[in-house]
Amino acid sequence: MSALDWIVVAGYFLVVVAIGWWSKNRVHTIADFFVARGKIPWWLSGISHHMSGYSAVMFVAFAAVAYNDGITVYFWWPLTIGLGVGVGAFVWAARWNRLRAKHDVKSPLEYLARRYNLPTQQVLAYSGAALKVVDIAAKWVAISVLLQGFADIPLEWGIIFTGIATMAYMTVGGLWADVLTDMGQFVIQAVAGIAMLIAVMAELGADFPFTMWGDLPDGRGDPVAGSVTTWLIIAFLFVKTFEYNGGMWNLAQRYMASPSGSEARRSALLSSALWLVWPLVLFLPMIAAPLIVPGLSNGEESYIELSKELLPAGLIGLMLAGFFSHTMAMVASDSNVITAVITRDIAPVLAPGVRRLTERAQLTFARVTTVLFVSLSMTIAIATGGEGFVLDTVVELVAATMGPISIPLMLGLLPWFRRNGPTAAITSWAGGLAVWYVVRYIVDDATQAAIVGLPLLTSLVLYIGIGLVRPENTGERDALIDSLNTDPEPGAAPDPDPDGRVAA
Fold first, then answer.
1. For residue 400, what pLDDT is reported?
2. What are all long-range contacts of 468-477, with beta carbons under 8 Å and residues at least 24 apart?
């Protein structure tokens, strides 16, 4: 990397610091810190929702799939997300927002104590938090792999540097800092992505990408290729529908932070459209990489080598700044929502005095929790990071276990499942995780489709079946569900319990 590249990277970090300190002036309470008090415009919420799905993993693990297998990477990842978010715009987006507006909910899991019971809320909170620690560790490993490739920075130092930088702006700016960083990430990604597309077009000819398919190895233009099967794409479609509409808790926050339910729906539709179109701009150069940097033994290095081969000084720095932005924004997003879960759902059960803290003390507690959570994920990344860890974690662990965690969380919002109570919720969660363990570690030669899809399918069947044979709906639960059908009247106050939380 040249001096100009490092100047661009340094400039990016100065912007991040400025965003953090500007956002600090908008954060006075935990409502500001976690859900921006419902003041984020729908277009900014939609862009943030879209960009929160990116990290350096895309330019490491997914770049390897594009290099080795071709266009199939688009069909099993962004296409499934775009379709799933489009469905969720009409099913879940507005209901998440109304939880905040009508019930003063500040954490996606906060309503579960009232919808089911406290034990259900706690098992989902603990298992989801543990999953997120591992998920974020994979993101740290991904950015460190890119730093090694571009600047020969050791993995450990790359993780430490990026982690500290993320904590520096996240702990002061909360969700506002997160969504504004997402917006900056969107601009950087647009410039860098289009620059890479133009560079590849200049290398391969103006008729790129239409004529490259005949020059690539056979099968690179097939929707199903390599380890990707039709069943895997179908499994991902179901998993991503739940994951990106609230099962990935930080994305529920985007809907909650919009001004109203109708605006949350608009933000979801914008995110869906971006998922269907924009990843093609990013993936086409990755798919064409074998024509420019052929013979790589490790496909995870393909985007790094492509950037070195084609991009001039300055643009490499912008590309690296984009990688930082992807990872830091996603980790900041995850950290904020996990902090919300710990602060609002876990800590008050372990130490009831937390509920009686002043607003200022609660905000301090949230910021300290953010630092501790990010530090733990960095420690895990340093201890377990290595080749293959990224893809294994993201695909086999996160995607497979997200279903059992999200089924009771997501379906509990819908009126069609009002009969389902805590028995259905906990049984479906436990059954899904048990099936994942059996398929992943006991069954020989299980396919990725089975590892990803069977846990979610098991949880779904158990949840629906138990709800039918053992209904547990009550008047209070029915009232909560029905309250989410419409936006509140203008000027109506939310309905918290005396401790400032949804009544349990």
1. 62
2. 468/419, 470/421, 470/423, 470/424, 471/419, 471/420, 471/421, 472/419, 472/420, 472/421, 472/422, 472/423, 472/424, 473/418, 473/419, 473/420, 473/421, 474/421, 476/114, 476/503, 477/114, 477/115, 477/418, 477/421
C-alpha span between 77 and 152 (Å, rounded) = 30
Task: Using alpha carbons only, give the angle 397, 401, 405 rounded to the nearest 5 degrees.
Answer: 150
Its pTM surpasses 0.85: no
Who's near 322: CB < 8 A, 6+ residues apart?
185, 188, 189, 192
- Tokens at 275, concatenated: 């998922």
- Residue whose pair of structure tokens reads 């398919």 in the numeric block: 213
> What ranges in 293-398 are assigned the alpha helix state H?
302-310, 315-341, 347-350, 359-384, 389-391
SS3 content of the chain, % helix, strand, coil (to 5): 75, 0, 25
The verdict on residue 482 lying in a domain is no
Task: Specify the pLDDT at position 168.
Answer: 74
Structural contact between residues 115 and 345, judged by C-beta atoms closer than 8 angstroms:
no
Residue 499 falls within a domain, yes or no?
no
Q: What is the CATH number of the domain that holds 19?
A: 1.20.1730.10
Question: What CA–CA distance (Å, rounded) separates 168 from 139?
Answer: 18
Distance CA 110, CA 494 (A): 14
Backbone angles phi, psi at 109, to 5 degrees: -95, -5
Which domain, by its residues, includes 327? 3-388
Length, in residues, of the chain: 504
What integer is the mean pLDDT of 94-116? 89
Specify whether the CB–CB gap between 116 and 422 falls below 8 A: yes
How far apart are alpha carbons 470 and 460 in whole angstroms? 15
Query: How many domains does the chain fold into?
Result: 1
Higher pLDDT, 302 or 147: 302
pLDDT tens sequence across 435-493: 888 887 888 887 777 877 888 889 999 999 999 999 998 889 999 999 999 988 776 55
